[in-house]
Amino acid sequence: MGLKYYVRRAISLPPHVLARKLIGRAKRKISFWQQNWIDTRRPTYLKDFPASQAELYSYFCSLKVDLLKPFSKQISALAGHYINHYFDLLGSGWVKVSHGIDCQGLEGNRYEMGQTVHADSEGRWLRGRINPANLAESQRIWQLIDSDYVPIDWHIDFKSGYRWSESTRYLKIVYGHKPGVDIKAPWELARMQHLPQLAWAYKLANDGLPGFDEPHIYCSEFRNQILDFIATNPPRFGVNWRCTMDVAIRVANWLVAYDLFRSYGVEFDSGFRRIFIRSVYEHGLHIINNLEWNVDLKSNHYLSNIVGLLFVAAYLPRTPEIDCWLAFAVQELVNEVRFQFNPDGTNFEASTSYHRLSAELVVYATALVLGLSEDKQRAFNEYDHLLHKVKPRLKPAPLDLYPLPNSDFRSPFPAWYFERLEKMAEFTMHISHGGNRITQIGDNDSGRFLKIMPSYREVLLDKAGTIYLNLSRCTDLLNSDTYWLEDHLDHRHLVAAINGLFGRDDFHVFASKYRLETEFVHNLCGKIRLPSYLKPSRVANSETAGVLIKGSQTISGAGFAFKASKGRCLETAQVSRLSSKVKLYSYPDFGLYIYKSEQFKLAVRCGPNGQNGNGGHAHNDQLSFELSIDGTPIIVDPGTYLYTPAPNKRNLFRSTAMHNTLVLEGGEQNSWLGGREGLFSMRDQAKARVREFDELRFVGEHSGFGPIHKRTLMIFESSIEGVDECNSAGKVTTYFHLAPDVDAKLSGESMVLLNTGELQLKLFGNPGKWSIKDGLYSAAYGMLQKSQVVQLESLAGYINWKIEWRLNKCRRRF
Q: What's the whole-number average pLDDT of the chain?
């Protein structure tokens, strides 16, 4: 970050806080140079790990093959790609990641930094790549790999072609310094979230299902890729140790895949097991010594750190140090669920996609803790907190334990924790529309924790091409006209996973396609079944939630906190008095209001900018909305696209004009710092607030422009009417960003016709002038599609508009 940023930060801090920070920074600098001196002169691979001869704990029984069979075609295709080292990550398309890869570039920027290698079985090819102190051990590990294996280049941005050196110490790795370079590309690959698919493929192949290779090919590939990574990524060297979050996610995926293979009867050789277990421990050491914790700001990064450490501590044999890691991870898991999730189950990042990531971290971690053996659970009472040397502190033993419902055991999770977890699933249900895709709010970097069964669909090649806009470099993989495309906006798997703990009928109906996730979590937690916080009469259908009438910021029922400031919550018996055609779900802590009927879903954004005011993953989307009709997206949030590789595009996609709201000429709802330091923060200037709402009306406003922008929405059975008011002398423009499949045409001076092929809509407005411009839409990180933007400009200081539709029949998708 630039000098100006630090000067501004220093001026804004009280003297005692500034002094504390300066002292802390000086200590870190001294520690950095000391450790750098040691690491460059001594091997960073551990010589020995006390438990290297022991076996890891196991948490899975063999999951039934019937759960895998519906996905057999997908598993076969994906596992085949991964065996041949083809990966489709962050908008890259299916590309073969190898040394010397010819990358296509990103945003017009292309680098030629990779070199073709001829990997000999003795590991001589590693000379000049691995730092001298680690070379001998790196070569020894490489010699365990099958001789016909071709190495993956774990250090290259396989989109731009930029490559980081594997001999650079991790804290010296720089990023965001070159145009078009995305450090997330090697990080995403090195998370190795594809490994569970190899375990599933092994099981189906071993059971004789057609379309698969010989079973041993899948377990050999798993083994070779793990050894490849360990040999070419010595601890604390290279790009893949730079971000602790990715270290944590990687080791959790290693452990889950390893456990799945073992549950299906695979026995790995002792040489591999020793190196694997040692590396798991090295990952744990790295996490505990590089926690992404800050007293002023914590986020999903820190949550992922403690969950990754939890997996390490749960699988490694007990030692005083491992007991301490386990207790600390559980303590911080409870603390972070309280801090990062609101009482209504929503995440504090102001992003629906980061809600998915963080909720995944919580549900799998919770299941793992519940599934710990009695021996492991004893660590909660026996750990020595004095062994913990980093911040935040670990409380003295024992951990607080609470009666576990439907069980004789006690767990570290209080009742509010389970209720919050259950509500995380309810929120995901409510933000999903008829096409089973969620409303995009805030950033979407396609982040996941475990991809147990990711959502893919087989599409025509030309259809996939319209999503990537650069698919020509991906077609060498295929001998057919179809393409396996991941659907990053289908979050049903999260609801299915959480249902592994609760067994709710409505969760099952919503996410029945992903029963594998439900059984996976149910298996992991030791088949514990938790009771719902809802009364039994309401568990079957949380759609019967009551509604809080005007004056409050909350409604009652599933997924909602009870915080009425005015008015009162309707009792369950009063629900029948409300309109049966529109259901309202309110999440004021997140800032999202969702209207659903048999014909439409309307989601309105109005609330805080997330991260307790930092706004790192928020957009300037106050009073923006998404609208789908009969399950078809019409008005959409354009998404995120990219982060550091293209700062201008990053800022464009989070700007006010890229959302379905009013823009005052030259204005932004919230400002951010220029340069790299401003890419992940946003000043909370808009102070958005809801004035009133019920199931037929919404009124909100914000003051981000100076003059207040007030938006009134009136909800009818076949139309939405809006009034935008902003008392300003300048020009105001209301934007409507269309889904890629929606075509817009002007019809006279006061109307725009919208057509999807199956649906026709009319968009009216006055006073002002209509125009239709080219737009962009991103359904996932790195993906880009062409779309259209409808604009209505006015000098009157207000705009009236109306969206009207007519359906021949309603298919009742909601």
A: 91
Tokens 């007519």 correspond to 806
As a whole number of angstroms, the distance between CA 814 and CA 808 comes to 17
Q: Distance between CA 130 and CA 229 in Å, rounded?
A: 12
The C-alpha angle 736, 464, 640, rounded to 5 degrees, equals 45
Bridge-partner residues for 777, per DSSP? 785
**What residue ranges in 416-555 does DSSP mark as E strands?**
456-460, 482-486
DSSP state of 592: E
Q: Is the pLDDT of residue 448 over 50?
A: yes
Threshold 0.70, pTM exceeds: yes
Dump pLDDT digits (tens) for 766-786: 999 999 999 999 999 999 999
pLDDT band for position 564 (cuts 50, 70, 90) = very low
Q: Which residues of 753-783 are buried (b: 16+ CB within 10 A; e: fewer)?
A: ebebeebebebbbbebebebeebbbbbbbbb
Choose among 457, 453, 428: nearest CA to 516. Answer: 453
Question: In the predicted model, is pLDDT for residue 68 greater than 60?
Answer: yes
Task: Return phi, psi of residue 761, to 5°.
Answer: -130, 160
Q: Residue 623 and residue 373: Cα distance in Å, rounded?
A: 49
Chain centre distance of CA 242? 19
> Cα separation of 813 and 174, whole Å?
48
Q: Write out the H or E segment, with its range, that includes residue 600.
A: strand 600-605
Contact call for residues 685 and 613 (beta carbons, < 8 A): no
pLDDT at 810: 44
* pLDDT tens readout for residues 724-769: 999 988 899 999 999 999 999 999 888 999 999 999 999 999 999 9
Alpha-carbon span 646 to 137, nearest angstrom? 39
In sign, the C-alpha dihedral spanning 233, 234, 240, 246 is: positive
Cα 702 to Cα 618: distance, rounded to the nearest angstrom: 15
CA distance 181 to 175: 8
Q: How far is CA 149 from the centre of its chain?
A: 32
CA atoms of 36 and 769, how far apart (whole Å): 62
Residue 588 has pLDDT above 90, yes or no: yes
Enter the tokens of residue 526: 């030791």
**Structural tokens at position 495:** 């609801």
Q: Which long-range contacts (CB under 8 A, 24 or more apart) does 603-607 make?
A: 603/431, 603/439, 603/441, 603/627, 604/698, 604/700, 604/713, 605/441, 605/659, 606/688, 606/689, 606/690, 606/700, 606/702, 607/350, 607/688, 607/690
Which DSSP helix (H) or strand (E) runs through 684? none
Cα dihedral angle (631, 633, 634, 638), rounded to 10 degrees?
A: 160
Three-state DSSP at 762 gives: strand
Per-position DSSP letters for 26-76, written without gaps between them: HHHHHHHHHHHHHHTTS-SS-S--TTTTSPPP-------GGGTGGGHHHHH
Instruction: Give, to the nearest 10 degrees, the angle between helix 215-232 and helix 72-83.
Output: 40
One DSSP character per residue, 692-743 reads EEETTEEEEEE-TTSSPEEEEEEE-SSEEEEEEEE--SS-EEEEEEBPTT-E
> Which residues on adjacent β-strands are paired with residue 95?
87
Angle (nearest 5°) at CA 8 between 7 and 10 = 65
